[in-house]
Design a protein that fits this description.
The complex is a heterodimer of chains A (578) and B (538).
Chain A lengths: L1 H20 L7 H33 L6 E6 L13 E2 L2 E5 L3 H18 L8 H20 L3 H10 L1 H11 L4 H34 L2 E2 L2 H9 L5 H18 L8 H8 L2 H26 L1 H27 L4 H21 L3 H32 L10 H4 L1 H15 L5 H14 L15 H26 L22 H19 L2 H15 L1 H8 L1 H4 L6 H15 L18
Chain B lengths: L2 H7 L1 H18 L5 H22 L5 E3 L4 E3 L1 H20 L9 H20 L3 H22 L3 H32 L5 E4 L2 E4 L9 H18 L7 H8 L2 H25 L6 H23 L4 H22 L11 H25 E2 L8 H4 L2 H4 L1 H15 L5 H14 L8 H31 L7 E2 L2 H20 L2 H14 L18 H4 E3 L2 E2 L5 H7 L1
Helix pairs in contact in B: 2-3, 2-5, 3-4, 3-5, 4-5, 4-10, 4-13, 4-19, 4-20, 5-6, 5-10, 6-7, 6-10, 7-8, 7-9, 8-10, 9-12, 10-12, 10-13, 11-12, 11-18, 12-13, 12-17, 12-18, 13-16, 13-17, 13-19, 13-20, 16-18, 16-19, 17-18, 17-19
Classes of the chains: A mainly alpha (578), B mainly alpha (538).
């Protein structure tokens, strides 16, 4: 019972928090802040319960296919056949091995973002926390939704709270940043909307009901029931929304402005979670639903990703605004995510998903640290501060730590993700264990590896200029008038310490998380590849590379006869397609 | 037929007529609270009529001698018009001048009465008269609503252009009469109506000319290109509550009339007329949105936005009916859903403008709106809900409206001759709604970001605020529970179709024929063998 309701509870809990926020009077800033923080902690606790239930449910079932903790509430369902074909669009939630960790990441980052706003947000306090909690609900919803329309609703709604967060509490150029962010992202996602609607029609022609259930749609795509030409257009329509969100070069131009102008918590959530909605969308929807189009377009998207990696690295190198520098580093890192994803191999995709989590942790923490500096020195200009290690040893420690995590030092989390992405990319074109070849190869891995070096260059240089050398502080700073200490306060240390701990854990022992990713990817993202692996004996053993591409193209036909391991038992689809 | 049948079946109409006359008299009674008295009388009238509508069973019956035919569509139109009419009266509560309050409220009631008769009309002449009964009171309302030169100018403009449109409409009706020899739209026998117009290619030249002229006249009512030019001037000149009324009442009447005409044609349009509607829809939404982007005055912006929404609804009209389907695939019920939602959200936007004033006058520009959120957060929130709904953003009913309209356009089957044009139109609509976001966003931003120094001053009292709340709350509730509106919309849409019996709609029947058998139970989807699609994928 609880396992069915837990995800709904997680999604709704911030809304309950909003209701409690309406109780105190406007002037009681302390009470409002406290309630907001406790509400996010409650959500975090619920999401940890969700992980525990997820693990126990998976352990009990001994199966990794499909979604766990599922819940189904009526929304737009109408008729069950009497009054014509039903519309089967409903509130469906569930998690698998990918989304459950992204859910935890969101639930973990939000309390920290709320807590970090205690000192910085001084006006319209209640509205601020209400909007943050609204954002929280929609982000949690995106990762839990297993109905495409519900996914789209949450995906789209994230824009509204962020628009206000940037526009009201942002930096000097906040209004332009908010409007550009909103319109730019909306332009892409309306095309996704068109794609969603077309998919609903397609699902109607195939199943007799207007359904947007992700499992059904994935089945349609995997079994070749979406014609190639249609797949192609739908992939592009979905990519229009997701690529802007990621952001993929050349659609990244909204990001530096929005990141720079957003308040600290906004930047943290934007970089930490919001950008992942794009990659998550590709991973959850585009690749499994349109497998042939994904294969055909992978070289294009990977090339864009690599150009993005290099271009954003070079841009980051020359920034003097430290927030902008971190923003460009995000563009570069998300390029790695996209590259790993389009290797279309389990290793690459799980590296990509791990990279999403890692980027959320380390870049989120970097934005927090930059925010701490800004609150004290009221500048983001690298030229104006220097040698801060002398006065702020705690800050220096954490900044160096997260820089190293971000550039992929072995032993910290960044390394594992990077390694897997490059491994997946470079081995994508090979046939190993009779698995069909993916679209990429070594040629893609080499420039991407160059991006890692560039990343180390600009990140370390930034550290050097801010932390070391002679002490440089603007006049009348550090500003301790708002109750801040010269070095990080205990509150601030408590905010970044959990992130650092998570970085170490993921760097030293990523196995449980990676196993969860891999089984989910095999079942839900690349089922064709995994079903071929399971049935590799029956495929014959021809190592002829010329046949490899043809085999990928034909894998859908072969997988049709092997539906058993892929399908969802609840859907009663174990019978072969007619 | 017994007199009592007429009284019972047309109770809402009688109530409105009598109530309007009583309201006129109430306005004459002096006293300092006469505005409240007149508004209360009007509100009671509408609520009583709404009560009669709810108590009556969904009506069904022909009254040939009156040229009326009660169908589920009339029922839908009744409760929607009266429900929103009550909110319209709330928003207009304290707008009229004390000397004119009786006339003002009576005009609103007459206009609502016109919509009710339009929805039941089964005679070209009755249809024409009903449409004019909708329009003529609105000319008066525009001129009465404010006492400055601008509103008089707007009233004059509106009147002359409206008179021109009425003349075109009447001229068209005369052509149709000439070609069919009867003014009846449907000949009704045994509860089944047979259209007096032949559909498709059999349409004679006279009838086609007549229909084109009728369409031209109706374009004015729904503010579609090329008859949209009056809208911004009139909306700007009229007081905000009246502009809110203009956005819904004449438009709804026009669309109901269009539905009736399409049904009379058995939804079999000549190809030329289909393309004409296609061009109208594309031009209307694009012109509305592009011109709205250029506006500085908020009422003009909302006027152009209302033109753009006409364009979206024309898409659904072009898709046409699929009997018994939900709005996800049936264009008619999508349109009926959308116009209800549109009426609420548009009225809500104008209600906020009515609920505030600046130092110097009414709230008109973005600067005037600045700081509303700081002064009254609840009203600003309701306003934001309405604007986001106009934008088509979740979680509001406006999102579902767009979903249904574009969904119906996308689900026209591949073998239908208008498959690709309709998809192109839907994509154009989607792009348009992104474009529209730019100006809606400016409005929301002004309300929330503006300086607090010269925030607008609340005015109009509690009723206006209630009106605003009654617009915003349903938008949120309907998002969570759309069945509350889709089910009646579907019933009403189904009644538009049986007006044209026979197999005329089979061309538009979507999808595999035996779908129902294949749909087993919730979640258990058994796929259909679509051989042609599969061979396409290989």
């Amino acid at each position: 019972m609880l396992s069915n309701w837990i995800l709904t509870l997680v999604i709704v809990s911030p809304l309950a928090g909003i209701v409690t926020l309406l109780v105190p009077r406007c002037e009681q800033h302390g009470a409002i802040r406290g309630l907001a923080l406790w509400s996010t902690f409650a959500t975090l606790a619920l999401s940890i319960v969700a992980v525990a239930l997820f693990c126990s449910q998976r352990g009990a079932e001994g199966s990794t296919a499909g979604y766990a903790l599922t819940q189904h509430l009526p929304w737009m369902d109408s008729g069950t056949g009497k009054e014509g074909p039903a519309i089967d669009i409903s509130f469906r939630v569930g998690v698998d091995g990918i989304s459950v960790w992204l859910l935890v990441l969101t639930a973990m980052l939000m309390p920290l973002a709320v807590w970090s706003s205690f000192s910085g947000i001084r006006h319209r306090v209640r509205e601020y926390y209400v909007l943050l909690l609204l954002l929280h609900t929609s982000l949690l919803g995106v990762f839990c939704a297993t109905d495409l329309l519900l996914f789209y609703v949450f995906f789209e709604f994230t824009l509204v709270p962020l628009f206000f967060l940037i526009g009201i509490w942002g930096g000097p150029d906040r209004r332009r940043a908010a409007a550009r962010f909103f319109i730019y992202t909306l332009c892409g996602s309306v095309l996704t909307f068109a794609g969603v609607i077309y998919l609903s029609y397609l699902s109607f022609t195939q199943t007799g009901a207007v359904t947007l259930r992700m499992e059904t749609l994935t089945r349609l795509g995997q079994d070749g029931l979406i014609p190639y030409a249609v797949q192609w257009w739908l992939f592009l329509a979905f990519a229009a929304g997701f690529a802007i969100k990621v952001p993929l070069f050349p659609f990244h131009t909204w990001l530096p402005l929005a990141h720079t102008e957003a308040p600290t918590a906004g930047s943290v959530i934007l970089a930490g979670v919001l950008l992942k909605l794009g990659t998550y969308g590709f991973c959850r929807l585009s690749v499994p639903m349109f497998p042939e189009a994904a294969y055909a377009l992978a070289p294009l998207f990977s090339t864009l990703a690599i150009v993005g990696i290099l271009y954003a690295s070079l841009s980051a190198w020359v920034q003097t605004d430290v927030k902008k520098l971190v923003a460009y580093s995000s563009v570069s890192h998300l390029g790695f995510c996209m590259l790993g994803l389009f290797s279309l191999k389990v290793a690459g995709v799980s590296g990509s998903v791990l990279y999403m989590v890692n980027h959320g942790l380390s870049t989120g923490a970097l934005f927090l640290l930059v925010g701490f500096i800004y609150e004290r020195y009221h500048t983001r200009d690298i030229e104006k501060v220097g040698g801060l290690a002398r006065t702020m040893p705690w800050l220096a420690f954490f900044l160096v730590f997260f820089t190293l995590s971000s550039i992929g030092l072995p032993g910290l989390n960044g390394f594992v993700g990077e390694f897997l992405v490059l491994l997946g990319t470079s081995t994508s074109g090979l046939t190993i264990d009779q698995r069909p070849a993916g679209p990429l190869g070594f040629g893609y891995a080499i420039p991407a590896a160059l991006g890692i070096i560039l990343g180390a260059v600009y990140m370390l240089w930034m550290c050097q200029r801010i932390l070391f050398g002679p002490l440089k502080e603007p006049a009348h700073t550090p500003d301790t008038s708002t109750g801040l200490t010269p070095d990080l306060s205990r509150r601030e240390i408590a905010i970044v310490a959990p992130l650092a701990l998570a970085c170490v854990v993921l760097g030293v022992y990523p196995k449980p998380v990676l196993e969860s990713f891999e089984s989910a990817i095999a079942a839900n993202v690349l089922p064709a590849e995994s079903s071929l692996r399971q049935a590799s004996g029956s495929l014959g053993r021809d190592g002829n590379p010329a046949k490899v591409g043809a085999r990928w193209q034909s894998r859908t036909r072969q997988s049709r006869t092997r539906i058993g391991p892929v399908g969802d038992r609840q859907m009663a689809l174990s019978a072969p397609w007619p | 037929m017994a007199l009592s049948t007429y009284i019972v079946q047309f109770a809402p109409e009688w109530t409105l007529l009598i109530g309007a006359c009583v309201t006129l008299l109430v306005g004459l009674v002096g006293g300092p609270r006469r505005v409240t008295w007149a508004s209360s009388a009007a509100l009671m009238t509408v609520l009583a009529a709404l009560g009669f509508t709810m108590v009556n069973d969904p009506p069904d019956g022909s009254f040939a001698s009156l040229g009326l035919w009660l169908t589920p569509l009339s029922h839908y139109a009744r409760w929607l018009t009266l429900g929103l009419g009550a909110v319209i009266i709330l928003v207009n509560w304290s707008q009229p001048d004390p000397g004119e309050c009786g006339e003002y409220m009576a005009m609103i009631l007459f206009s609502l009465l016109g919509v009710l008769i339009t929805a039941s009309a089964n005679d070209w002449v009755v249809l024409f008269l009903a449409l004019e009964l909708v329009s003529i009171p609105t000319y008066v309302l525009v001129a009465l609503s404010q006492s400055d030169a601008r509103s008089s100018e707007a009233g004059i403009k509106y009147f002359f252009l409206g008179a021109l449109a009425a003349a075109v409409l009447a001229y068209g009706v005369s052509f149709v009469y000439g070609s069919t020899g009867t003014t009846a739209i449907h000949r009704i026998g045994g509860g089944v109506g047979v259209s007096t117009l032949a559909g498709g290619a059999e349409l004679s030249g006279y009838a086609l000319t007549g229909l084109l002229l009728v369409l031209g006249g109706l374009c004015f009512k729904i503010a579609a290109v090329p008859s949209h030019v009056y809208a911004p001037d009139v909306y700007e000149g009229a007081a905000s509550p009246v502009s809110g009324l203009l956005g819904f009442v004449p438009k709804f009447a026009g669309f109901v009339a269009l539905l009736k005409i399409m049904a009379a044609l058995q939804w079999q349009l000549p190809v030329s007329l289909q393309w004409l509607l296609w061009v109208l829809a594309a031009a209307t939404m694009t012109a509305g949105n592009v011109l709205a982007l250029l506006q500085k005055n908020m009422k003009r912006t909302l006027a152009y936005s209302s033109i753009a929404h006409t364009g979206y609804m024309l898409i659904a009209l072009l898709v046409g009916p699929v009997t018994g389907e939900g709005p996800m695939r049936d264009g008619v019920s999508a349109m009926l859903f959308y116009i209800a939602v549109y009426g609420a959200m548009n009225l809500g936007a104008f209600a906020l403008l009515a609920a505030f004033r600046t130092e110097s006058g009414s709230v008109e520009t973005l600067d005037d709106l600045a700081g509303v959120a700081a002064r009254s957060p609840t009203a600003a929130f309701a306003f934001a809900v309405c604007i986001f709904s106009l934008m088509g953003f979740p979680p509001t009913a406006g999102f579902l409206g767009k979903l249904y309209i574009f969904g119906s356009a996308f689900s026209v089957p591949g073998d239908h001759s208008f498959h690709r044009p309709l998809i192109a139109l839907a994509i154009l609509g989607v792009v348009n709604s992104a474009m529209a976001a730019a100006y809606y966003l400016r409005i929301v931003a002004a309300a929330y970001w503006g300086r607090e120094r010269a925030a607008p001053i609340p005015t109009g009292g509690t009723p206006v605020r209630w009106g605003l709340a009654l617009c915003a709350i349903p938008l949120l509730v309907l998002f969570a529970r759309p069945l509350g509106l889709t089910a009646p919309a579907r019933m009403a849409a189904a009644s538009v179709n049986p007006m044209s019996p026979g197999s005329s709609t089979s061309k538009l029947t979507h999808g595999p024929a035996t779908t129902r058998d294949r749909f087993v139970a919730e979640g258990a989807l058994v796929p259909a063998p679509i051989s042609e699609l599969r061979s396409g994928s290989d």
